[in-house]
Specification:
Layout (H helix, E strand, L loop, with lengths): L5 E2 L12 E6 L2 E6 L2 E8 L1 H12 L8
Antiparallel strand pairs: 1-2, 2-3, 3-4
């Protein structure tokens, strides 16, 4: 399986730099942390879009 991982242009390439990486594969969005690349979260574009919209609107600001 050839997956092309992408990370934000704002992420540092410095050693020890942790960032979230994204890829698209078979209609799913894959996410992983650069410091733990063996753990991959699978979601759909619609679910990721809904999460990002909620984060932008402050929906998760009061989580304790």
């Amino acid at each position: 399986m050839d997956i092309q991982w992408r990370k934000s242009s704002k992420s540092s390439n410095a050693a020890g730099s942790d960032c979230l990486e994204l890829a698209e594969h078979d209609g799913e969005i894959l996410m992983r942390e650069s410091d733990n690349p063996d753990v991959i979260i699978h979601t759909t574009p619609a679910k990721l879009r809904a999460f990002l919209d909620g984060a932008k609107e402050g929906e998760f600001d009061n989580l304790a």
